Amino acid sequence: MQRALSIYGEVLRLVRRLPADSRPYxxxxxxxxxxxxxxxxxxxxxxxxxxxxxxxxxxxxxLNKYSVDQAAANKLKEICGGS
Length: 83
Known about the structure:
The chain is mostly helical. It is built from four helices and no strands.
């Protein structure tokens, strides 16, 4: 649970780097996704890792869409365990 909260917090920090008019949409989108997946079994590390990696990859896609330096997501990459 702590790792998921860290990832959520980092995603919200990345949202702040987006243009002001797009921030509310992506903040809401992130929250909805974390709420939707809260029922994932904490005892299934493979499922959690897949979700966390998906959050990282989607964050990179959004950063790229708005031409934000992907290096901003390095801390998220560390938390998610991306390589």
